[in-house]
Structure formats: C-alpha cells, structure tokens
Amino acid sequence: MPKFAANLTMLFNEFEFLDRFEAARRAGFLGVEYLFPYAYDPALLAEKVAAAGLVQVLFNLPAGNWAAGERGIACIPKRVREFRDGVGKAIKYAKALGCAKLNCLAGVPTTNRPLARRTLVENLRFAAHALEAEGIQLLLEPVNTRDIPGFFLFRSRDALDLIGEVAEKNLYLQYDAYHMQVMEGDLFRTLERNLERIAHIQIADNPGRHEPGTGEINYPFLFDRLDAMSYGGWIGCEYVPQAETTAGLGWFARFAVQQAEPLGSSGVLSATAGVDAAGSCDAGR
User: Fold this and answer.
1) I need a labelling partner for 91 at 20 to 30 A (CA). Which of 38, 55, 70, 224 fits?
2) Residue 254 sits in a domain of what CATH number?
3) Collapsing DSSP states into helix, strand and coil, what is residue 31?
C-alpha cells in the first residue's frame, strides 16, 4: 500500500503552519513534507513531528531568495559557496527531524547552459558526499517550465542523464507526476523503467495542480501499479486544494482508513506500520 505524506506548504492552509502537523495526522497521513523548515527552530519542528506521531519525510535544500522568485541556486556559478553552506544547514535540520531525504532544486541558469551544468554537477557531487556521510539521500527533481520558465531540468530523462554524469550512488530522482504530466506524459512507463532510481514521488492533478481526481491523471491506476511494482517509498501530496483541504480528501479515504492504526502507546509509529524514516516540497515551483 502506498505511504502518503501531506505537503504542509500546500495542504491544511486553514491552520497556522505549526498546527498543520496535527491536522495532517487527524486526516490519516503518516508522514509530512514541506518546502523549507529554515524559518523555525529545528527542535520546535521535531517536537511537532513527534507529538503528532509522524515521519518527517523530506524537505528542500536552501534554494535562494524564494520570496524574490528564486527557485534554486545549484546551477548558478556565483552562488557555489552559498549552496554548499546551505547543504550544511540542511543536514543540521534533517538530523534534528530524523529526515532521511533532501531534495535539490537546480534553479534557473544565469549564465550559459554548459557552465551551469558543470556547476550543478560539482554541487551535486559535493552534496551527495556530504549527505551520504550522514545517512541522508540526495534527490534531484525536474520541474515543468510552464510554472517556472527556464528551469534547468524539465524532463525526467534530463535529470536521469545528469544523475548518470554525476555518478554518485547517493543521488536519486524525485519524480513529480504533475510536472512530468505537463512536460512529457507517459507516467506509468517512466515510473516502471526507472523505479530503482526513484526515491520519492509527488502528486497533483493536471490542469490546476489540484487534488487527485480533479483532472486528467488516472491516479487509482498509478497507485495500483506502484503497489504491484512494490514501490516502498513515500508519495508526497503536493497539490493545491480546490477548497478546504479535508473537503478534497475523498480520493484518500481508502488509504487513510488503512493507515489509521500505526500509532503506538508512545505516540510514535509502531513497527507494524511498515514505515521507514525516509522521504520535497514545492509551492510555486
């Protein structure tokens, strides 16, 4: 059965951010992800995760000035020191939160593509090594260029080719079905061909980036196929609810019922949940 993580940047916006953890658990989610944790003390976030009995699945490496429209700095030659400092900051948060996966946003090049690519390759090698030493996986995500014009990686093949060039065993693909439906379609075959290199999946329907069942993607089919392929990772629910979050969770009802058991008496996930401490976020990317 797929394991679903609520993206708290995009879901449960009816609540203040720190109240979204408990709201996600009440709705039946076992894990959470979000864009960035860096506005909060890591100990406070860890307390919220533990109190709700959740797994912190994933968040992004620092990605520049988000409010100013930056969507990653990993491919920008003049920002290498900032990127590498950000890797250290992200590791500190990941260790505090028990988060075993961090996503890298490549960004929009500010120079010629060959130089941007070389910068990205070297930054990914640095990050992959640093995270591997801490037992944390590094993920790389292609993003559609309709939502973020000029984004450096925009098809699954682009990201997989770059992963091959980096040649680090600790670098994996984060596959966002919404972005890839916009850019290339053929979701099931891409997942089937590359599942061993995919460490995290995110979902939203198209058009509109709303909850499953509101657009053209056949998510029941994809969930069943992932089950048949024994996908053991998380699926991040990174969509914009059409109305209040809980009103749009009809698609999730069968999974929430099955996942309602695993809280033990200590308030943490029990061994019977089949959940590991693995696990990006992205509003506006």
Assistant:
1) 70
2) 3.20.20.150
3) strand
